[in-house]
């Protein structure tokens, strides 16, 4: 199985930071990726950072194609004009999409003490559950930054699945789900051929190191 991650799509609301610009796709590129891989049985789609384009651009495109996706929402930005609000989350739910957590303030969880992790893992999930009226059972890790402590805290918080940005193939039964972020430089045909088998060992090693550091 193969988990793909999108971020913002279409016209950005402001000048983007370099890290954001690298993963902010034009609508045309986004639709080309959807059409190339969206219907594959082994591909799962997700969106991070809860930009407004999730509902304005991505949702109609998904519905047109009969596709579903998981939206990892920043609970601390529900009132921010660039981001999804509570009514948007309802709309996603009503459209058959899954609402999940990307934490509260988009911080690096490795740098937080227990108080900070409680905000990111517990308080964020409570806010999203309140906004959607549905249990939130999945989380994605900001910046893909985790270590052994972050993972054990996520396990203790009771998340069913946790999503990273490690890339490569995923196994649907595993708790930790690697994902691949689609960037502005990936060719659509290369994305369609993923996961590339030559990458497997390198990615496996990288994940091993991150889990145990
Ligand atoms: Zn993020």
TrEMBL record:
This protein's record includes keyword Lipid biosynthesis: no
Pfam families reported for this sequence: Polysacc_deac_1
GO BP term, pick one: carbohydrate metabolic process
Name of the molecule in the record: Polysaccharide deacetylase family protein
Organism, scientific name: Solirubrobacter ginsenosidimutans
Single GO MF descriptor: hydrolase activity, acting on carbon-nitrogen (but not peptide) bonds
InterPro entries in UniProt: Glyco_hydro/deAcase_b/a-brl (IPR011330), NODB_dom (IPR002509), Polysacch_Deacetylase (IPR051398)
Residue ranges constituting the NodB homology domain according to the UniProt record: 41-213
One annotated Gene Ontology cellular component of this protein: extracellular region
Keywords: Signal
Transmembrane intervals: none
UniProt keyword annotation of Signal present: yes
Secretion signal, residue range per the UniProt entry: none
Principal location: secreted
PROSITE patterns for this protein: NODB
Intracellular or extracellular location(s): Secreted
């Amino acid at each position: 199985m193969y988990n793909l991650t999108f971020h913002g799509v279409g016209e950005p609301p402001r000048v983007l930071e370099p890290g954001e610009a690298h993963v902010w796709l034009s609508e045309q590129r986004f639709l080309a990726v959807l059409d190339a891989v969206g219907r594959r049985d082994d591909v799962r789609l997700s969106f991070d950072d809860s930009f407004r384009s999730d509902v304005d651009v991505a949702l109609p495109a998904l519905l047109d194609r009969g596709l579903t996706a998981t939206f990892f929402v920043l609970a601390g930005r529900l009132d921010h004009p660039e981001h999804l609000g509570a009514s948007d989350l309802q709309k996603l739910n009503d459209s058959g999409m899954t609402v999940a957590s990307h934490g509260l303030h988009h911080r690096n969880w490795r740098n937080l003490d227990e108080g900070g992790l409680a905000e990111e893992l517990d308080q964020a999930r409570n806010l999203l559950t309140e906004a959607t009226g549905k249990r939130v059972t999945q989380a994605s890790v900001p910046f893909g930054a985790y270590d052994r402590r972050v993972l054990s805290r996520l396990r203790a918080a009771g998340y069913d699945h946790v999503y990273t940005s490690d890339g490569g193939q995923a196994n649907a039964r595993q708790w930790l789900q690697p994902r691949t972020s689609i960037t502005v430089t990936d060719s659509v045909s290369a994305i369609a051929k993923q996961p590339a088998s030559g990458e497997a060992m390198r990615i496996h090693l990288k994940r091993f190191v991150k889990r145990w550091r």
